[in-house]
Design a protein that fits this description.
Radius of gyration: 21 Å
Helix content: 25-40%
Distance between the termini: 46 Å
Order of helices and strands: EHEHEEEHEHEEHEHEEEEHEEHEEEHEH
Number of helices: 10
Strand content: 15-25%
Length: 346
């Protein structure tokens, strides 16, 4: 609509889709009037105050209805002025992406200053890459300052969407856990997706990895525990945690603080379910340490989190009797996951 938006007729309910909530928050500033965004019970516990604070720095009215910094929220839109704002960078890169995507349609240039260290930089790289592809330039100064000149417009074009490296991780993990060979096609090995480096982590653990064109193949080998910083690929932390169940020695993952505000508190969820399967787990605010123990079957709680269901399905390749509760939560990102997963047994 070229930035000319209208206010929805009623409130917009987006379930537990954090990306949608955050991106629509800034987009709603372009619609003259009041937009109300809400979600399910878990969404109403997920913070968004840092983003609302940025919008208020532009003299926009943006508020949490319950006053707790979480949805439901109301955005009073019109003609956002842009200008210079400061954003805390440590919770979610999606707040920054939300501002960047809509900023070309603000009245003046927008300068976003990042306070502290920006988390999940690889996702910001995806944002900047897609904006550039559709004709909008952003000046990125060392991930500390982003400038979006006003007056730019996205240009329509044909675009081939890359394969999803996050979804591919479960199949690579299957090879690692079962000691087999799995190839995933239609992947861009030069992608700016952080999760494209998940096979590198498996390689550190002992797997063999081959890359050929748009195909990546993982060959399973005996696994060893590693220490790895995961801030640039947070969506595969759960996958790697399950692989760690089958490694010799401890696996330590750091830089994962923002997992606590995802679909569930993923660090707590991992600690609970890995322990249920026999591991010894130490979890902190920003890390998790996993030491395999004697494997035991269990019913795995998914906490309505698609990535819990998919990653712990991989555990069932090596531990008999693993059951996944509420498996349909995978519909959020990968509706035919279990059908694809079944093909591994074909």
């Amino acid at each position: 609509q070229g930035g000319k938006l209208k206010v929805p007729d009623g409130e917009v309910f987006i379930g537990n889709a954090g990306t949608t909530m955050r991106f629509l928050t800034t987009l709603a500033t372009l619609a003259p009037g009041i937009t109300r965004l809400t979600g399910d019970e878990r969404m109403q516990e997920r913070p968004i105050e840092d983003l609302l604070t940025c919008l208020r720095q532009m003299n926009l009215k943006a508020e949490s209805i319950q006053g707790n910094g979480c949805p439901p929220i109301e955005i009073h839109g019109g003609k956002p002025q842009g200008g210079s704002v400061t954003l805390a960078g440590d919770k979610s890169s999606q707040y920054l992406t939300s501002l960047l995507l809509s900023a070309p349609y603000f009245q003046n240039d927008t300068v976003i200053n990042i306070e502290g260290e920006l988390t999940s930089k690889s996702y910001v790289d995806i944002t900047l890459d897609i904006m550039q592809t559709f004709g909008v330039s952003v000046l990125n100064e060392f991930y500390q300052k982003f400038t979006v000149p006003a007056g730019q417009r996205y240009r329509a074009r044909s675009y081939a969407v890359e394969g999803d490296a996050s979804s591919a991780s479960y199949f690579f993990a299957a090879a690692a856990v079962a000691g087999g060979e799995v190839s995933v096609t239609h992947l861009n090995p030069d992608s700016v997706q952080g999760d494209i480096h998940f096979p590198d982590a498996l390689e550190q653990m002992g797997c063999e990895v081959k890359r050929s064109g748009e195909k990546i193949t993982v060959f399973g080998n005996p696994l060893r525990g590693i220490t790895i910083h995961m801030n640039d690929m947070p969506d595969v932390v759960q996958t790697l945690a399950v692989v760690a169940l089958f490694a010799e020695g401890k696996t330590t993952m750091t830089g994962i603080k923002n997992l606590r505000i995802k679909e569930t508190d993923r660090i707590a969820a991992l600690a609970n379910e890995l322990t249920r399967l026999g591991a010894s787990v130490e979890a902190g605010e920003d890390f998790i340490i996993i030491e395999p123990g004697t494997h035991q079957s269990a019913e795995v709680e998914t906490y309505d989190d698609h990535r819990m269901a998919m990653s712990f399905a991989v555990a069932g390749l090596g531990i008999p009797g693993v059951k996944i509760k509420n498996p349909r939560c995978v519909d959020k990102s990968f509706p035919d996951f279990f059908e694809r997963f079944q093909e591994l047994y074909g």
